[in-house]
Each structure stands twice: as structure tokens, then as C-alpha cells.
Amino acid sequence: MRLSPLLLALALGGACATAVAAPAPAPADWSTRERKQLVQYEVALAAPESRWLEVVMTVERPRGRRSDVALPAWIPGSYLVRDFARNLDGIEVTDLAGVSLPVERLDKQTWRIGHGGKGFRARYRVWADEPGVRTSVVDDSHATLNGAGLFLYLVGETARPAELRFTGMPANWTVHGALPQPSPGTLRASSYDVLVDSPLELGTPVVHAWDEGGTRIELVFSAPGGSNADPERLARELRPVVHAFAEAMGGLPTKRYVFLMLADEKSDGGLEHADSTLMRVSRDMFQDEAGYRRALHLASHEFFHLWNAKRLRDAALVPYDYSREDYSRLLWFHEGFTETVENQMLVRAGATGPEQFLQELATAWTAYLQKPGRNHVPLTQVSVEAWVKQYKPSPGHFSTTVSYYEKGHLVGVCLDLELRLRSRGKGSLVGVFRRLMASHGARGKGITFGDIVAAASAEAGSDVRDFFRRYVEGTDELPLPAQLTRMGVDVEIRAPSAGESSPLAARRKQGWTGIVFTDNAVRSVVPGSPAELAGLLPGDEVIAVAARRTRTGEEAAERLMDHAPGQSVEVALFRGGRLLQRTLTIAADPRKVFRFTASRTPEPAVRELRDAWLASSPR
Ligand SMILES: [Zn+2]
């Protein structure tokens, strides 16, 4: 048997740390007051392959004569009701001497414990079989744990400090995450919020650590089942990105930050936390440069969240209400602008060249202009709707809403350019974040829409309320191309068929139906398109085009493009089990493809503005 170097490192339980990294700060012992308030959790991993985690919650000094305990309905950062209580089983409560206490279930996620003022223990178990960045999984190779789905909280008393202890862990496993560990397997959190804001990876991951201006940075790479990634390369590429952020933001506001990267069956994005992130990537995606690039984008995005969304948090989400939807009107800011800064910091770090940055921006703009729902409702409303739309997609959303990530990112780019143009290069989007950190984040104050507008106006040197009124509270088309021209960037607009070297390929790209296919069905239909005029609907299963059988959406799209604009074609489809026939007339493709390139002959002042925007300063 041969083991890859990675597997070998995993088999040896190998954790390697570079010598320069500062050691993890040792936590001070609990004060007497904290000890009295302590909520203790013990998680038994005696039979990890069973997927059940046995949890014991101990409260030695409860308040009053009875306490309500509950499991969150959602996890901060992911705006969807997940009802974690669905995985909880068999809650039993005793006093500290083991005598049973009465428990009443109040609703789907809350229990009332009658303890008469005495200390109590609640025992329950949790089914953990959902790998992901918002959920928990345990098996015999590792455990990825998210506290929101595991730990009951004392309703109204989430400020109490918490201590967490693992028992029955396989001997070669270690525990990784942002929580300090006074001894292996015992972790401390200053509050319930901190406890559930600190995902943990248990197992035998590879660890790379380094120092960034006095902050210990860790990359914890966990690949149960192996991966084609080189974690050392990931750490090497991440270093200048972390440095670029630190430089741009004036230092890191934490002594330790942990990138937890889980590589397994599929990519699942990342979730932000104050001092860490949990990312999930496909174990096989590192076969080419694109895989490393995706991982770097993901890490860059999550890292900026340590400021935006964590230390700069919508005042409406302070404190979090775990029991139900907690509404924010600022998700375009928390998520969209994070994407803007994520991309920019990769340029700063030298990971993205200026040409590539402009090309990626052009691709994003091209795709965005093809979204019929982009200006249907304002971003502030899209943000509130996240709970029922962003995470609960329906075909009807195609023309009625837009992703606050996608549009928020482009609004972030437009705001950045607006600030640079107005202030003649003195202000920027990152400057807005620095201002908000000084006025709010560093003081633990939540931010409001008005605070963002005020910080942006200060950065611009003039009132930018109108920008927010038009593009965030309103639905005006974004001014990106005009702004780019003023920034010394050439904007080229072409037909989708232009640039095709083969005449046949160019001819086939001239037609348009307005159908977006999934594997074998119509996913969406562009309003006013030939498909809509022909009466096609999302969900239709296209089975033949021009009397010839098609087996996949891709094949149907190819057969439709056999026909030139103006030609009619018969489409056979199943809808709700009924066979239907529709006639579709191919139209000329109205879509535009954008190309952004740095102008060769800008005015010197414009060149200076542009170069400052696209400058890199790698370490
Ligand atoms: Zn995010």
C-alpha cells in the first residue's frame, strides 16, 4: 500500500506548524463570578460511527425556580430556518444528584425545566450526519461540529460563559477551532454567542500556522478520505492575501484566526465567524489552477467577514435572536460588499492581475445584465426576503428578485468607483470599512443603513445619499460602464457571436430562445423571449426538438440552435405528465457581452486613479 504525502501526514496525525507563528494565547482561568455563571457542555464521542453525539448540559446555578432551554432555529450567517431541533432526541433532566426533574416541551425547540432553584443536568443526543459549513457530522474519521445545532441555550441568559469538554475521542484526534483550549479537549467560550460562533474540526488534520503582525493565523486542512490538494501551497498562497487585508484595514483586530478547510465530497462554500471560518471544498477540485483559485477566493471572502458581518454587524442583528428569523436590511452590504473587497484584496496580494480582474468584472457584469429580476425590487427588500427567497429558490424568482451577493457585489464596485472619482483618489470602499470599524466595530456598536451612508459620504468628501437612494433603496440600472470610462477603462460591447473564429460557431450563436435549462427540464424562461411567447414554462421537460428526440437540456439547446433567427421549430414536452407540442420562433440574440480593458491613453490624472484602484502590493 502506498500513501500519498497528505494521507501519510493524516495517518500520522501530523500537525506541522512553522516556527515563526506565535503560540495560541493561553486562556486565563475563570473568575469566581464567571465560574458561578458557567454553563458546561460535555460531548461524548464514544461511538462516532453511529452518528449520535451524546450531550450533557450542566447548569450549577440556574436563575429562578425554572429555566427554559432551546436549540436555535438558524445559524448566524445563513439566513434560513433550519430547525436544528429536528436532530435532537430524548431530553432527560436531573438535579446534580441524579434525581429526575420535570421537563415540559413548550414548542418545536424549547423545553421548560422545573429545577426549583437547584443545579440541573440535561442529557440528550443529537443526530449528526450532515456534512456542511452550517451543520454537523461525525464519523469514525473526523467530526465537523457547529454549536448552533448541538448546544441548548438558556433562554434569556446567552451571556453566560460556557465550557465544552469532549470525552471518548479517538486517541489520535485533536480539536481545532477558534476557542481557546486550556487543556486538550476542553474549550472555553465567553458566551453562548461565542460558543456557537466557533465551529470545530476534530480529527487528524494538517495544520499550517504563521504570524501576521502579531496575530497567529492557522490553516487547518481536514481531508477525511484524502484530497489532491497541497495544503502547504494553500497556506503559501493565503499568506499574502491575509497580509493585504491587514495592510488595507490597518491591522487585524484579533490575536488568532483559524481557517478551517474541510475537503470532502463536494464544495459547499464557507461560513464566517469572528475569529475563524469553516469552508468546505471538493476534495478533488485541486487538480488544476482553477481549484486553488476558487479556494483562495473563498478564503479571501470569509476572511473579510471577520470585519464585515462579524465586528461590523447590522444593529438589527445585535443580539442575535436564535428562536426565529432575524431580519437584516443590510445583507447586500454584509455579503455583496464582502465579495467586492474579496476580489480587490486578491489584486492587492498579487494573486489576480489587473487584466484578469477587469475581465472577471466584465464577465460578472455580462451575466448580471442577463438577470431579468435585477431591478425588480430594491436591495434593502431583497435582503429582508432572504429567508424566503435567497435560500428557498423557486422558478418565479428569476424575474422577480436578484441575489444580494451578485448585485451587492456590483453595487460595491460602483460605490468604490464613485468614492474614488468624487474624492480624486483619496477615498475608497475599504476606507468606508476602516471608518466604520473606528466608529462602531472597535466599540462593539451595531451599524445602521445611515451609518454606512455617513461613512461613505465622509470618504467621498461629499454627500453620497443619492447613490444609495438610487441603487440600494431604488432600482436604477447600475452606472458601471460610465464609471469605468471615467476611470480610464475601455468598455467594449459585442454580440455573443462576435469573436467566434469559426463561421459555423458564430452562426449558431446568433439565435436565442430565452430558455435556461437544468439537466433535463426548463429551469427558467426569460420574460418576453421566444420561449415565453411560445408558452414554455419552468419545469417543462423537453423531449424532442423538430421531431427529433432530445435526452438532456444541453442536447435540446443544441438542437434549437440548429435553427437560425426567424425560423420556427416544433418542441415536444411533458408538463405534469401530459405531452404537449409548442411552436417556438428563434430570435436574434439581444444579449451583450462586455469586455473591460485598461485604456492605453488615459489622461495622467485618470491613469493615476486607475492605477491606485488596480495596484498590487504583494509582500
Ligand atoms: Zn459571505
TrEMBL record:
GO biological process: proteolysis
Keyword Signal attributed: yes
Keywords per UniProt: Hydrolase, Metalloprotease, Protease, Signal
Domain PDZ: 490-560
Cleavable signal peptide: 1-21
GO molecular function (one): metallopeptidase activity
SUPFAM superfamilies, A to Z: Metalloproteases ('zincins'), catalytic domain, PDZ domain-like
InterPro entries from the UniProt entry: PDZ, PDZ_6, PDZ_sf, Peptidase_M4/M1_CTD_sf, Peptidase_M61, Peptidase_M61_catalytic, Peptidase_M61_N
Top-rank taxon, per record: Bacteria
PROSITE patterns per the UniProt record, alphabetical: PDZ, PROKAR_LIPOPROTEIN
Name this polypeptide is given: Predicted metalloprotease, contains C-terminal PDZ domain
